[in-house]
Structures are given as C-alpha cells and as structure tokens.
Design goal:
- This protein is of the alpha/beta class.
- It has one domain: Rossmann fold, CATH 3.40.50.300.
- The chain is 38% helix and 25% strand.
- The chain has 9 helices and 13 strands.
- Strands 5-2-6-1-9-10-11 form a 7-stranded parallel sheet, with helices on both faces. The chain has a two-stranded antiparallel ribbon with strand order 3-4. The protein has a two-stranded antiparallel ribbon with strand order 7-8.
- It is globular and about 50 Å long.
- The two termini are 33 Å apart.
Length: 245
C-alpha cells in the first residue's frame, strides 16, 4: 500500500513529558490554518473507564483540543487500563499487540489526511509488542521524521541528547525538539541555557518552548489556552513548509 509521508511521529525523552499536549496543540493549530490534520494514538495505556466504556484519554483530548469530530476508534487502535509499557499492559489484560495491525492503522491515517501526527507511548525504546518491536521500530516502519518532546529543566541535556543519538543510530530523521512545561518562576540558569546547548550537541533545531499552562488537563479533557500558546511559542510553520504565510 502506498501512502503519504506527510506526517510526524511524536516521541518523548521520557514518560510524562507532555507529548499529548504538544500533539493535540499542533494538530489544532494546523487545522486552524486550513490543514486537514489529525492526531492519532495507536496504543493507549492508562485508559479510563467511563460509563462502562474504556476511554483512551489522549485521543479524547485530541478531539477536545483540536476540534476533531472523529470517533475514538479512528484515533486509537489498542487501549488498556494498566498505566504500563504497552507490551506489559496488554499481557496483563490477556491480549497481545500485533505490530502489523498497528502499522496498517497508522498508514491508513497517513493516506486519509493531509498531515497525520502519530503519538507514541513513552520514549523510543519502549516495547510495543515486546523487546523485538519498539516505538522506534514503529517510527522506522512508517518512515516518519520525529518530533522529540523534552522537559526544560535540569537533566534534560542528557536525556534529549541520548534520545536523538539513538534515533540517528537507527537512521531516523528528527524534525525538531519541543521543550515543554516551562514555569516562569522556575526560569533559572539551566532553563535558559539548556535549549541552546541541546541544539548545538544534537544538530537538531529547537522548535520552541511551550510554557506550563495551568488550564490544561488531559485527564479532564480541558485545553484552555493551548492553541494560542502553541501558535505563539512554537515554530510550527517549519513542519508544513508548503503552507503559504
């Protein structure tokens, strides 16, 4: 099956760095500017039970933040209650993730939309179906460039440089790095210096620094101020060079 390469794989330097917020915000801004963009989460762990149904909270947040009308099954393939690595969450639920199904799910979205943002779970080394098939393997199968989401504070240099080095060792392209969650009261020497140092050490452009937004809750489905912050703080136009100013 042939498919469009117009998409990005969103990964992080760790779990909880804000991949979902960045993914949803980028999708919303792109749609605001007339691009038929969609965000998908092939595998969701830590899914929530609501009204007798298991809800993939990240995909639900995409709909709220980006104004998507898609049913959740088009945005998410596998969902599990345990907030664990996908391979382990599936095992504890008596299921097994099948990589060909995940790849096909992603490729269909890449075919269907003008631009598809695919959010992984955790970082690149996280096992999807097991050690033999990781998030990095999925990105490589899809031939998609990465957007790496990282924390801004102390420790991020090591985490981010190692993530980029590992991606490059696998032949993966990195489109840019987004630093997330900057609190102005915590803007110290490390936070001021880290982005420039990471850019110099990796050779990867920094797409911007997204501030901490108190009105955001992925679990609660609240995205207040997200699109405005993404549009103002991130160089999102670099991701869609064909878009006219």
């Amino acid at each position: 099956m042939e498919y469009s390469r117009k998409g990005y794989f969103i990964t992080g330097t760790d779990t909880g760095v804000g991949k979902t917020i960045v993914t949803a915000g980028l999708a919303g801004v792109l749609r605001r500017h007339g691009i038929e963009a969609v965000a998908i989460k092939p595998v969701q762990t830590g899914a929530l039970a609501r009204n007798g149904e298991l809800v993939p909270e990240d995909a639900y947040f995409y709909r709220v933040a980006a104004g998507l009308s898609h049913p959740l099954y088009q945005l998410n393939l596998y969902r599990f209650t345990p907030a664990l690595s996908p391979h382990l969450a599936a095992k504890l639920c008596g299921e097994k993730i099948e990589p060909p199904k995940v790849i096909d799910f992603c490729r269909r979205a890449l075919l269907r939309y003008q631009l598809t943002l695919i959010e992984g779970a955790g970082g690149l080394c996280v096992p999807l179906s097991g050690p033999e098939f990781t998030m990095a393997d999925l990105a490589r199968e899809l031939s998609l460039p990465l957007i790496v989401v990282a924390r801004i504070g102390l420790g991020t240099i090591n985490h981010t440089v190692l993530t980029v080095a590992y991606a490059k060792s696998l032949g993966l392209e990195i489109a840019g790095i987004v630093f997330n969650g900057l609190k102005q009261q915590e803007l110290g020497p490390a936070e001021r210096d880290n982005p420039e140092v990471v850019a110099r050490m990796t050779g990867v452009p920094v797409l911007g620094i997204l501030p901490h937004l108190t009105g955001i809750s992925v679990e609660g489905g609240v995205a207040e101020g997200l699109l405005a912050a993404v549009e103002e703080s991130l160089s999102w136009r670099q991701l869609v060079p064909w878009l006219k100013p």
